[in-house]
């Protein structure tokens, strides 16, 4: 498939009630393994890609290295690739769009783009984030590329007390509306775990909803019934693999 065809296929895979499952990867090797396991598409996780290259999360990994990682994954697997692009490595809309273009040039057909203030506090105002999304969409449209912009809100991740998540729903609804109008393709709400709230967001959002698996999220079958269109695993696969590697190494270096 061409890059445009991959982007179109990726969008088609987002089905309410029949969610796209993304077991997040971090390099070409993990991409090959997940592809061979039967995945329909690939997505990186920012935390995992950074950790695999010796960096912390929060755009610490250089953009140039992230782009190379995307290219290596793209040439290793024929599947559509979405790249977790955090805050776009810039604040101003035009700069963000230019950075996204670099990732597209290296094979990405989609991005995660979050509203948290990287290196700061809280999340960007709705109008600010919408302007950033709009600039990305306008750039992609000029290139005739149906880039899948998965607009992520960090409202729920930044509130560790899930009992307060109900109070954040109205803000999330407003963000979903504004981001959709600006040209987003999906709405990502990591940290949201309560079934009732997940179902409410899926019912209300004009965009396909993406939920990240956490220890307290419902199982995938339940999330499908709630209307989720995309389920991702975030850093969990990387942590699992690295935990196994460390355990096996310790059995050699520190035998009991």
From TrEMBL:
The residues forming the signal peptide are none
Q: Which SUPFAM superfamilies match?
A: Phosphoenolpyruvate/pyruvate domain
GO-annotated molecular function: lyase activity
Q: Which Gene3D superfamilies does this UniProt record tie to the protein?
A: Phosphoenolpyruvate-binding domains
Q: Which UniProt keywords apply?
A: Lyase
Record CDD domains: ICL_PEPM
InterPro entries annotated for this entry?
A: ICL/PEPM (IPR039556), Pyrv/PenolPyrv_kinase-like_dom (IPR015813), Pyrv_kinase-like_dom_sf (IPR040442)
Pfam families to which the protein is assigned, alphabetical: PEP_mutase (PF13714)
Name assigned to this protein:
2-Methylisocitrate lyase, PEP mutase family
**Source organism of the structure:** Rhizobium hainanense
């Amino acid at each position: 498939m061409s890059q445009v065809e991959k982007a179109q296929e990726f969008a088609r895979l987002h089905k309410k009630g029949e969610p796209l499952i993304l077991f997040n990867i971090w390099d070409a090797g993990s991409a090959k393994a997940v592809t061979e396991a039967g995945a329909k598409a690939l997505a990186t996780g920012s935390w995992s890609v950074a950790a695999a290259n010796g960096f912390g999360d929060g755009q610490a990994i250089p953009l140039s290295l992230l782009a190379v990682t995307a290219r290596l994954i793209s040439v290793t697997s024929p599947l559509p690739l979405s790249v977790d692009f955090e805050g776009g490595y810039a604040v101003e809309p035009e700069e963000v769009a230019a950075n996204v273009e670099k990732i597209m040039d290296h094979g990405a057909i989609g991005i995660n783009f979050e509203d948290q203030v990287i290196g700061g506090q809280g999340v960007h105002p709705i109008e600010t984030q919408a302007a950033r999304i709009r600039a990305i969409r306008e750039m992609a449209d000029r290139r005739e590329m149906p880039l899948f912009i998965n607009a992520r809100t960090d409202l729920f991740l930044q509130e560790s007390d899930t009992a307060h998540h109900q109070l954040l729903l109205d803000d999330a609804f407003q963000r979903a509306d504004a981001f959709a109008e600006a040209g987003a393709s999906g709405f990502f709400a990591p940290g949201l775990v309560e079934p009732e709230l997940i179902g409410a967001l899926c019912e209300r959002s004009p965009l396909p909803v993406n939920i990240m698996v956490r220890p307290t999220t419902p199982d995938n079958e339940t999330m499908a019934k709630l209307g989720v269109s995309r389920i991702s695993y975030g850093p969990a696969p990387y942590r699992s693999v690295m935990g196994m590697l460390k355990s096996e190494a310790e059995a050699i270096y520190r035998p009991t």
